[in-house]
Amino acid sequence: MKALSPLLAVLAIALLAFLAGQAHAGVVFLAVVVPYAAFAVFLFGFCYRVLRWAWTPVPFRIPTTCGQQKSLPWIKSASLDNPATGWDAVGRMALEILLFRSLFRNNRARLHDARLVLGDDRTLWLGALAFHWSLLVILLRHLRLFVQPVPVFVKAIDGLDSIFQVGLPSVYISDVVIVGALLYLVARRFRNPIVRYVSLPIDYLALFLLLGAVLSGLFMRFVVRVDVVAIKQFALGLAVFHPLITSALTPMFLIHLLIVSAVAAYFPFSKLMHVGGVFLSPTRNLANNSRSKRHVNPWNYPVKTHSYAEWEHEFRDKLKAAKLPLETEDAGKTTIN
Ligand code: HEM
Predict the structure, then answer these.
(1) Sign of CA pseudo-dihedral 159, 157, 173, 99
(2) Is 218 in the pocket of ligand 1 (CB under 6 A)?
(3) Which residue's CA is minimally distant from atom 19 of ligand 1?
(4) Could you tell me the distance, in angstroms and rounded to a whole number, from the CA of residue 15 to the centre of ligand 1?
(5) Which among 170, 208, 260 is the best mutation to test ligand 1's pocket, defined by most ligand atoms within 8 Å of the CB?
(6) Are 337 and 307 in contact (CB under 8 A)?
(7) Ligand 1: which of 39, 142, 175, 215 to mutate, judged by most atoms within 8 Å of the beta carbon?
(8) Which residues neighbour 264 within 8 Å (Cβ) at sequence distance 6 or greater?
(9) How many other CB atoms sit within 10 Å of the CB of residue 189?
(10) Phi and psi at residue 23, in whole multiples of 5°?
(11) Is residue 145 in contact with ligand 1, taking CB distance under 6 Å?
């Protein structure tokens, strides 16, 4: 049930695009107004959230660690799991961002014959890695629609991605991988009772929106063909704030564009913001060097303290009268702080 409303929402977006695409005014609205508005929300929302994270003070070193800290020279330390220097932290971040290293360590806990059994579970890591890398490849390939002349690296990625030359137009490896990965990520939320229990409609919404963008793109490539050259003209026009409304803006393309716009506008408000957040996560990007280096909180201000010795001195007579033990000498001479 939790998946039904997000699924209906994505289907409603597709239906809206299809219906609005039947009238000229609807085409202009969907092809010009909506993409600009969505891109503006994405850009400002993304920057706002990243800047807010960047401005949040992190006065203490709070990295999560899961390995030996650097200490004595003869004790082997784990530089990636417990980074001691900035470069160690860079290495840790690079592996996290490029290979999702912390997800690789994901373990599964199961009850087997009333005993807790811990085991490896690499499928989520593999699914997540497959999804993110193929999405990146698809987005980079899309640059051919927005940049003229098409950069060499985009052509190279395109060539490699369709290296098997299967079908006409040829099937991209990234397309097959992303569909498989997204279906796995959705199925995982349905199949695993624990994950199903903690899943919220917004978890499904992100997946369904991305699946909608991918499937509508595939539909355009293999089923309802679109005039890619004319769409490139339109996209280049959009990029230079001079949009051209042509007959290439078919309902199928508008469905793709509206779903993509919905992803863009929803992005800053959603968990998809982890793309920006991972770089600013102090539990990952800080070196754990609090023992070798003194970090003074730059926001410290002088605080008026009242030590126990001072307190005892203040109430000495009363404490004595009540025959309570005293810790400091008479005449206000303090022995403890
Ligand atoms: C989140 C963003 C997007 C995703 C995930 C996405 C996904 C896809 C996918 C999977 C395809 C199938 C073929 C391929 O892989 O190239 C495709 C095709 C296509 N997409 Fe996108 N797309 C996105 C954004 C856009 C945008 C902003 C445009 C606007 C110009 C666009 C225009 C097209 C066109 C014209 C095709 C057909 C290409 C062909 O027939 O070769 N896409 N898209």
Answers:
(1) positive
(2) yes
(3) 217
(4) 18
(5) 260
(6) yes
(7) 142
(8) 38, 39, 41, 42
(9) 18
(10) -115, 150
(11) yes
The reported pTM is 0.87
The closest of 284, 294, 223 to 256, measured between CA atoms, is: 223
* Residue 331 confidence (pLDDT): 54
Cβ 141 under 6 angstroms from ligand 1? yes
How large a percentage of the chain has pLDDT more than 90? Answer: 77
- The residue whose CA has the least distance to atom 18 of ligand 1 is 217
What is the set of domains in the chain, with CATH numbers?
4-303 (1.20.950.20), 304-337 (no CATH)
Which stretch of DSSP H or E encloses residue 109?
strand 107-112
Provide the pLDDT confidence category of residue 162 given band limits of 50, 70 and 90: very high
pLDDT(337) > 50: no
Residue 107: in which H helix or E strand, if any?
strand 107-112
Neighbouring C-beta atoms of residue 174, cutoff 10 Å: 23
Can you tell me the distance from the alpha carbon of 44 to that of 58, in angstroms, rounded to the nearest whole number? Answer: 24
Neighbours of 32 (CB within 10 A): 18
Q: Is 100 left (phi over 0), alpha (psi -120 to 50) or beta?
A: left
| Helices then strands, each counted (H, E), the chain | 16, 2
Task: Pick from 220, 233, 270 the residue to mutate for probing ligand 1's pocket: most ligand atoms within 8 Å of its CB.
Answer: 220
CB of 131 sitting under 6 A from ligand 1: no
As a whole number, the mean pLDDT across the chain is 92
State the amino acid at position 28 in one-letter form.
V
Answer for the pair 200, 207: CB distance below 8 angstroms, yes or no. Answer: no
Q: How far is CA 17 from CA 138, 222, 230, in A?
A: 22, 20, 19
Between the CA of 304 and the centroid of ligand 1 the distance, in Å, is 62
- Residue 61: which of 79, 78, 80, 86 has the closest Cα? 86
Two tokens at 51? Answer: 């800047």
Q: In sequence order, which residues have a C-beta less than 8 Å from that of residue 19 and are 6 or more positions away? A: 26
Atom of ligand 1 nearest to the CA of 135: 5
